[in-house]
Amino acid sequence: MDKKAYLAKRNALISEAEALLNEGNLEEYEKKEQEIKDLDEQFEKISKAQANMNALKGNAVASDDVRAMQVNGNNAGAVSTIPEKETAKDEKKEYLTAWAKVMMGRHLDSDEQIVFDKINADFRKSSFNNTLQTVQTHAVVIPETVADDIWREAKELYPIINDLDITFVPGDFTILQETDSGADAAWYDEDTEVTDGDFAIGELNLTGCELAKNIPISWKLRKMSMEKFIPYITKLLAEKMAAALAKGTVSGKGKPGVSDSFKPEPKGVETALTAESGTPQIVTYSEGEEGGLGYDEIAEAMGKIKSAYKTGAAMYANNVTVWDKLAKIKDGQGRPMFILDVTSGGVGRLFGLTVKEDDSIGEGKILIGNLKRGYACNVNENMTIYTEDHVKGRYTDYMEYAIIDGAPKTTKAFALIKPEEEEI
Question: Same domain for 60 and 149?
Fold first, then answer.
């Protein structure tokens, strides 16, 4: 069986498997899935046998290469000089090219089609049990290098995303956390029995929220070179997804109740602080002539953050608030307290904390806190992309899709300063 025959048979089996999956016929789907695995294994054996035959015809292999293969656990009978890591690297590179061609509406050669089908088939099998992924059979996996670039771009655009400790655990993710530490340790003599500690363990469940953004791109624009198209689409996807994730981290509504009509979102820090009885972590200020944001409000907010979270904390505000309010705060002697400093990861420092510009914060508001330790964010399913051509309009929709969830671990790691005219 040559590569062309293998590819044709594999594509036919994948089409049949997808049809069964869409019909909900799991029993037949699993049989078809096994047929695909058997076919892959058979073709791999044939390819190895062909490689061995070529080697016997005169392609000598150095003994060091043979020993390296044996150390790596490869088949001792197979003759190959290609290290496993290099093979994986070549596959990723080939998939990047194949993915870009699909995004640009170009034809794939047989090798590219094999890699493209294999990686996407593996993804669909791994995400099959995720009930949130309703259209996974049509998803196209974003290459690792592109996904990494999207996350890197997102972190550069929004410091809040950069400061999150993001995990990538597939499916639902539960974090155990202590909700009541009880009394501290005490001193005892040898005749006194040590009392039991009284603390409770709670759970923070991150079940995943669907995040999607559609970007229409004209066919004329798709004619650009591949070298320019990949960074172009990467930047577009990063800008749109980052804005939604940053805003969700700050003011996401969380999971809807029975009477709510909004869609599931991560639970934002501001949402959690506002929901607390008496809003102990929120400081307000007046916008009147005799009011305004000043030293006292910042000091009060700093006092609300538990000391253990001060190290690593930062101040977040949008561009207008940073330069119209924070940069104008003065001490009792009329001296500016804001210190310009771009070396600390922000635009300046105030009260010893780095001040960072982030457009996800509402105007006039300042969020102070430790996102790395005080907020949990999990990517239940990393980014995939869907395309749909519109012939009459001569454009293609690119829809990016991910499943992400997040929520504050503790409100004591944060404080929020906001104008008092806003309802709490």
Answer: no
